[in-house]
Each structure stands twice: as C-alpha cells, then as structure tokens.
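Apologies for my clumsy wording, but can you show me some protein sequence, whichever is easiest, together with the matching structure tokens, please?
=====
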Amino acid sequence: MNVKGIHHLSAMTGNAPGNFKFYTEVLGMRLIKKTVNQDDTTAYHLFYGDERGNPGTELTFFDFPGIGPTRKGASSISGTSLRVASDAALEYWLVRFKEHGVKHSAITEHANRNVIFFEDPEGQQLALVSDETNSGVAGGIPWDQSPVPVEFGITGLGPVKLTVRKPESTIAALRLLGFSEKSRIPAIVAGQEDIIVMQVGEGGSGAEVQVEPRSDLSAAAVGKGGVHHVAFRIEDKQELLAWIDILNKAGLPNSGFVERYYFRSLYFREPNGILFELATDGPGFVTDEPFETLGEALALPPFLEPKRASIEANLRPLDTSRSV
C-alpha cells in the first residue's frame, strides 16, 4: 500500500493545435497518446511525456475550444514543474526560451533546487527543475527524436504546488496517502504562512507536493492555462481497490474504480476541493499502438472504439503525424 510519487497531471487548453506545437516543438516532449476525454468525447485528451509515457512523466491536456482563462486563487493546483537532468540543462533552456519568445525567469533557487519559472502560451504556471542534486524517484528517458537534445530533455514531472486556504486539511489528506513533511520554505507573499513541503515513497522531485497557505485569496476557477487534477502513482489494480476501502473508511467520497484502459484510477477531492487521482503504473501507452508511432493517430480504448465515427465527427482536425 505505497503511493510511489506523482503519476500525471492534467491541465486545460482551449487550443489543441497550439498546445501540441508548444509542448512538442518548444518543450520537446513526445505526444505519446492522442485520445479523447472519456467523460466528454467531444474533447481531445493529449498526453505528453518521455519516450513512452512512463508513469511520472505525463503532462496531459483536455481541449475545450472557447473555454475562458483560469481565474487564479485558492483551492487550486497553482504550479507545475518539469524535471531536467542538470544545472547545465537549465542554461540550455535559458537560451532556448529566449529564441522561442517564452516568458521566463532567470535561474533561481527554490526549495533547495535550481529552477526556471516560465509560462506556456495560455498562461499555465510552469517551472523547469534541475535534478543536479536530486535523489529519490527516478526520472524518465527523453525521446531521442525530440528537437531538444536528450541530455537537456524533460525527464518527467517535478514538485506540484497546491494553493489552499486551510493547509491542515490538505496535509491530512496527503498524510492519509503516505506523505510526510520534508521541510518548510518561506512564503512567496508577505504576511502568509510558510509553504509546507511534503514527500512520499522514495522522495525527491518526482514525489513532492508543496502546500502553499493563502488566506488572502478567494477560490480559483479552472479554465485554459489551469490544472484540472493531479494523479499519484500506485502499483496495480489490487492496490487501487484497497485504496477505495481506505478512502471510504476515512469518510472521503470517491469515484470508486474507473477503467481508463491505459491505467486504472479512482478520484476524490481533498477537503479544500482539489481533485486527486490515484492511478496504476500500467498497462501503459503501448497497449494499443506501436512504440514508433505513439500519438500520431487518434487512439480509442476498446469500449469507445465502436463509436469512432461519431467521435471523430465531433472533433476538430488535429494533425499529429510526424515526418520521418
């Protein structure tokens, strides 16, 4: 019964073609699955990750054209970080961001790591985090056909920041999942409490959540540039079923077992209203596509395949084919 770290993080876009261009051509991540939101099949669900979308490397997006921008605030996943191997990689990214006109900070130290803060074209708050001195959960393997050299490529998800009005409630939910307090770092905003750094499993960048208390904020509203939910890694279906029982006994309403085909899931909201998911490490993304052509065609799980014609008819065209 061990949560192993961060599994994936799902965000929102209103512009699938622009999103695809930025995350593959600028950030150099691989689109490892082009599918649909299983709860609303009129929307794409795009999965970016390392060479095969290993657990802990997946940043995903739901595409809802015309959606309004995120209103920042409390009860939100307010910061997403992506891991790179070294401080030298950060130096490379400073040049690359300047070349591509990406809004970004200088290299700075945050939570005892060197980072670059930046934004995607829709304003999502992101950071590149150096693993120069990191230990703990291993990163993934950057795709060798990315426009970014492998040695500088993104290796997975790093610490996730949660902004809440009542930190003790969120921390209690994280402790239920096996997280423990690692450290505290000074508040970013004067007059607010320190940020509580929580970690789980082997620890390190891939297993860290930063809880930011903000009594001065009203509730956020998620739109484009915002994050929908964060998922944490568990081993398999057997553990997932056991977690359902644990959540029920703790009085936390949850979705129960959900079959996502590429992994199995359950969902629940922690007391401040942030959506958490527990997701299994497998079966993975090469279940229905060859490794060589991951993400190039629309993939549908078997339970949606009979509806392919109507699903495709309700999607905007999105060319994700790759020239050899």
Notes: The chain has one domain: 5-313. Helices lie at 16-26, 87-99, 167-176, 237-249, 308-313. The chain is about 15% helix and 35% strand.
